[in-house]
Write a structure and sequence with these properties.
The complex is a heterodimer.
Chain A: H1 22-36, H2 42-58, H3 77-89, H4 97-100, H5 106-117, H6 130-142, H7 146-149, H8 167-178, H9 188-193, H10 197-208
Chain B: H1 3-14, H2 23-30, H3 44-48, E1 69-70, E2 83-90, E3 102-104, E4 107-111, E5 116-121, E6 127-132, E7 151-153, E8 156-160, E9 165-170, E10 176-181, E11 196-198, E12 201-204, E13 216-221, E14 227-232, H4 256-266, E15 282-284, E16 289-294, E17 315-320, E18 326-331, E19 347-352, E20 358-365, E21 371-375, E22 380-384, E23 403-405, E24 419-421, E25 426-433, E26 436-440, E27 454-458, E28 465-472, E29 478-484, E30 493-495, E31 499-503, E32 508-513, E33 519-524, E34 534-538, E35 541-548, E36 561-567
Parallel strand pairs in B: 1-30
Antiparallel strand pairs in B: 2-36, 3-4, 4-5, 5-6, 7-8, 8-9, 9-10, 11-12, 12-13, 13-14, 15-16, 16-17, 17-18, 19-20, 20-21, 21-22, 23-26, 24-25, 25-28, 26-27, 28-29, 30-31, 31-32, 32-33, 34-35, 35-36
The chains are: A mainly alpha, B mainly beta.
Chain lengths: ~210, ~575
């Protein structure tokens, strides 16, 4: 599979973007808020608490323990932001996430998305079997998946990275699209509906092994 | 590849790939091959005369008529077998390449995926400058992070970007002079086409037919970047004439009564009906008009939310160059639900009409697999060619389970530009055969997210292939056809040397006899050659240049090479 440059390296700074490291972010936010007299140090601390809350499920080092929880470290900024927006608007539903986003502001969602997009994607060490590769590649080719997710399945902007994502999460997500449990990307449902469960499982293991 | 070619390629790979040339020598060299005017600045006269300029390649499709027929004939059918790599330049982006290198007085401007621009010494491949666009956080594109090249005018180079901007660069330094936000990328707008420079204007369309955009062509002032005019490809009344047959007279199985009922309930869908313009307009300087094709309606497969003909989707459109006002159109497929849209850029050339009279004509190759021949005075259809690829079950409506119909949604002829040989009266189209099933499922407008209204699915058990078809545009008959082992996407170049150049997904770049289709030369580039070739002359030596970066849409092997060839000494 062809390599491509890290997308984050190609992108400019978002007008409302936050700096690279959280420590740096906290210092700058604190300084800015104090300077403007708008609020106190609790804002940065609050964001830190939010991030800490995220890591309880998504992993302190970016590797979630729960097989159904996705890797979000290194995921694309705009994709994460849209998912948070969709949870808040009810376009995407999840027992825990729908609660967590209830009181998040637009700025907080963007800051969280920026923070996690700037972390390194953790290696999961998953090895696809030859059979998974053969079946998964055939299935993904039929769906023309690279047209959006790109050749290395690394995604870009609003299209999520699939490469190296946890197979269990990928499989469940594709099944959720197939059965219309997940509705916030409507074009996925008819595509995934055309696959049987076996093909979806093979695709999940194929993508996890990238 | 021959042993000799392998040796040369190996030697090139062992070197730093670019020769070292002193700045002084470069300046001297670029100052000595002028044909028209001051070559430090691209004048309108140069742009207008490009069809006869054997030294330069000034437009993405060669000239304003977009013939991709270049007058240089040093490399010809007799000696093309001696074509050898002159240099290979490696960009830093290993991804899909659809760029047409533009050459001005020995300086080449080429682009990559994710909007990098390189200025190179066209004789040596030495880098002069490199521009990386500072991409915004939101990009929305369906078919790869492509870019098809720059436009040049005056002392500037122009490029459209994935985050829907138009940037103007200083041609000498690569520094940005100005940028304009063309449209909102969050709503699905993006740019992959090369702009067109004409009469102080920079013309550009938009992608987004898969996201519920309202398509357009816009004209900007080349100096200031100020918007001059904005033509919407969907008028506020987009219903049209409720056409039940396509351009070839086949029934499209529309339920007009249901559509009229939906129109009353939903209103006109013009604000989200798509109609992207993916490729350059042709320019008729005498008529002072431009001609372009508008792409598919949104959502691609679900017509229930967009009653009417969905004007001007899937259409040839002509507008006034100065004002952007509508002049005429011709719709190939009204209310398309197969994404078999109009993408390949139109070509202007004289054609013989049904009465045997020579008229100002226009050619367009459709995803349907037909070449359509028009009278460009009123956009009317003169004829359509024989089908260049298998057509089966047309126009079977998409179903929830998936309906098989040929061609598949990538064509026929995708965005790939044709080239003509006016001496032979032939146009050359590269085709795909990629069987698919068409699935429909209605969903509401998702505000900038992918909005297909269903799915396209390649049938894995069926063979895929491609072909190059030479079509007599004065009769519609196919003169010759060469089958290729993979679907074809990229573009064609023809020359006065009687040659046709085009590349394949398997890495082969080939030269054909334009009259017979015989393969006269080939070179293995190591990655998919899926970009349109160009040609130029420096210091009396003709070069052929092409990018080999593979293709995202068809998932051909990626690379990052720009390869220039010339005759062995």
């Amino acid at each position: 599979m062809a390599s491509r440059p890290a997308t984050s390296g190609l992108r400019g700074t978002v007008p409302w973007a936050v700096p690279r490291s959280f420590n740096h972010l906290a210092v700058l936010l604190l300084a800015g808020f104090l300077l403007l007299g708008l609020c106190g140090p609790s804002v940065a601390a609050e964001l830190g608490e939010r991030i800490a809350l995220c890591t309880t499920c998504h992993g302190e080092a970016g590797l979630p323990e729960d097989p159904q929880v996705p890797i979000i470290w290194g995921q694309h900024f705009y994709y994460i932001y849209v998912q948070l927006k969709d949870y808040k608007a009810g376009r995407r539903e999840h027992e825990i996430m729908s609660q967590i986003v209830v009181d998040l502001s637009k700025q907080e969602m963007q800051a969280l998305a920026q923070h996690f997009s700037e972390q390194a994607w953790p290696a999961i060490g998953f090895r696809s079997s030859d059979r998974d590769v053969a079946q998964g590649e055939t299935a993904a080719s039929a769906g023309q998946c690279v047209q959006c997710h790109l050749g290395g399945y690394e995604g870009d902007s609003r299209v999520p990275r699939l490469a190296g994502q946890k197979a269990s999460y990928l499989e469940r997500t594709m099944l959720d699209f197939k059965h219309k449990k997940r509705k916030n990307s409507p074009s996925k449902s008819p595509l995934l509906a055309s696959y049987d469960a076996g093909a979806i499982a093979a695709m999940a293991r194929y993508l996890a092994g990238f | 590849m021959t042993k000799q070619l392998s040796l040369i390629t190996g030697a090139l790979a062992g070197l730093a790939l670019t020769a070292t040339v002193s700045t002084a020598a470069l300046a001297e060299e670029t100052g000595s091959s002028t044909v028209y005017g001051d070559m430090q600045s691209v004048t309108q006269d140069m742009l207008s005369r490009a069809a006869g300029d054997g030294n330069n390649f000034l437009h993405t499709n060669g000239n304003y008529k977009q013939t991709r027929y270049h007058p240089a004939r040093q490399i010809n059918t007799s000696n093309v077998k001696n074509l050898r790599p002159a240099w290979i330049f490696q960009t830093e982006v290993v991804e899909t390449m659809e760029t047409t290198p533009i050459v001005v007085n020995g300086i080449m401007y080429a682009t990559t995926a994710f909007n990098h621009v390189y200025a190179l010494n066209a004789r040596t491949g030495e880098q002069i400058w490199h521009y990386k666009h500072k991409m915004g956080p939101i990009t929305t594109y369906c078919c790869g992070p492509n870019n098809r090249g720059v436009a040049v005018s005056g002392d500037k180079v122009y490029m459209g970007t994935l985050d829907a901007k138009l940037v103007a660069l200083d041609a000498k330094t690569g520094k940005q002079v100005w940028e304009q936000q063309i449209a909102d990328p969050e709503l699905g707008y993006s740019e992959t086409m090369a702009p067109t420079a004409v009469n102080g204007k920079i013309l550009i369309g938009t992608n987004g037919g898969e996201y519920g955009i309202r398509g357009f062509v816009k004209a900007y002032d080349a100096e200031s970047g100020k918007l001059l005019w904005h033509f919407h490809t969907s008028p506020e009344d987009s219903t049209g004439v409720w056409a039940e047959k396509d351009a070839t007279g086949r029934d499209m199985h529309r339920d007009i009564a249901a559509e009229k009922k939906a129109l009353k309930e939903l209103g006109d869908p013009y604000k989200t009906v798509g109609g992207g313009v993916w490729q350059n307009p042709a320019v008729d300087l005498e008529m002072n008009r431009i001609f372009f094709v508008a792409g598919n309606p949104s959502p691609d497969l679900d017509g229930s939310l967009r009653p009417g003909d969905n004007l001007y989707t899937n259409s040839l459109v002509s507008v006034d160059l100065d004002s952007g006002e509508y002049v005429c159109h011709f719709q190939y497929i009204a209310h398309d639900v197969w994404d078999l849209d109009a993408v390949s850029p139109p070509i202007l050339t004289d054609v013989v009409n049904a009465k045997g009279k020579t008229v100002p004509g226009l050619l367009h190759a459709g995803k349907t697999g037909h070449v359509y021949v028009h009278d460009r005075r009123d956009c009317s259809l003169v004829r359509f060619s024989e089908a260049m690829v298998p057509q089966e079950n047309m126009w079977t409506l998409p179903t929830a389970e998936g309906a098989r119909m040929l061609p598949g949604a990538n064509g026929g002829v995708e965005w790939s530009p044709m080239a003509i040989n006016p001496e032979l009266g032939l146009t050359y189209a590269m085709n795909l055969h990629q069987p698919m099933t068409y699935h429909v499922e209605s969903s509401a407008y998702p505000a900038g997210k992918l909005w297909l209204g269903g799915a396209f699915k390649v049938i894995p058990s069926e063979a895929q292939w491609g072909n190059i078809s030479a079509v007599d545009y004065n009769t519609g008959k196919i003169r010759w056809k060469v089958k290729t082992e993979q679907p074809m996407i990229g573009g064609v170049l023809t020359t006065a040397g009687g040659l046709l150049f085009t590349g394949e997904g398997n890495g082969y770049f080939k030269a054909y006899d334009a009259e017979t289709g015989s393969i006269l030369w080939k070179f293995q580039a190591g990655a998919g050659v899926n970009a349109p070739p160009a040609t130029y002359t420096v210091e009396g030596k003709q070069y052929i240049v092409v990018a080999a970066g593979g293709n995202t849409q068809l998932n051909f092997k990626r690379g990052n090479n720009i390869l220039a060839f010339t005759l062995a000494d």
